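yo, Transcription initiation factor IIB is done. seq:
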Amino acid sequence: MSDAFCSDCKRQTEVVFDHSAGDTVCSECGLVLESHSIDETSEWRTFANESGDNDPVRVGGPSNPLLTDGGLSTVIAKPNGGSGDFLSSSIGRWQNRGSNPDRGLILAFKTIATMSERLGLVGTIKDRANEIFKRVEDQKSSRGRNQDALLAACLYIACRQEDKPRTVKEICSIANGATKKEIGRAKEYIVKQLGLENGQSVEMGTIHAGDFMRRFCSNLGMNIQAVKAAQESVQKSEEFDIRRSPISIAAAVIYIITQLSDDKKPLKDISLATGVAEGTIRNSYKDLYPHVSKIIPNWYAKEEDLKNLCSP
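structure:
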């Protein structure tokens, strides 16, 4: 109970709220102070037919504009006791006989959602991947191709377009057995098909070494100071003509930063964390070494420390 001012009692009195009628009543004189109030608290009554079903959810999922019926079609549940068993089962059989044009899309969207969840991707990337797959599927030219590779390639392209790129190795790790080569071919096919649809090349977004830095450093358990130095270093490296892939540059910068710290990381660990081969990291390190004094921040390493770096 709570207190409220009663106009009959002319003072603050305890009031009782009648949930069934929505009335607020004075506990001393019985005056209805407020009627038909709206209860804004959560309401979890169950509307299930079976007494054993205590699931309070009575709404469906959100509409999906990529599906023919918006994803709001009715599904006949399997009978679980009661007088309507025969009718329910008959309707269910007829529904199953009918062809659902979106069945393939629904399964594909579920697979993309699972892969996105395993990579920890945000919802906008998942939605973009769904949209890309729907556009490719509408052209009716993907029949016979590796479905897992197509879905993984859609996710790879979506990450690029949303400026949250992932390496092909990362995508491959959740692609249900699809290889890097298959995903690469699927990506080229999708880009080609979308280009034919629009009449122009598909914008994939530019990859920078800094896009991977925070994630790679986190995988290696580097401290905040080392992560900050790595991010500054990789930004300065873009000022030089280093003809290596952004992922290789990121891995080489991490190698340099860790060698200048007390917590040195072996090349093998960096290779595992970044997905870049040890030989590729060494070659990228050779290309970065001549510019090391201009790339590494002065606050992180002094000139004499840089001289102690192993020459390639």
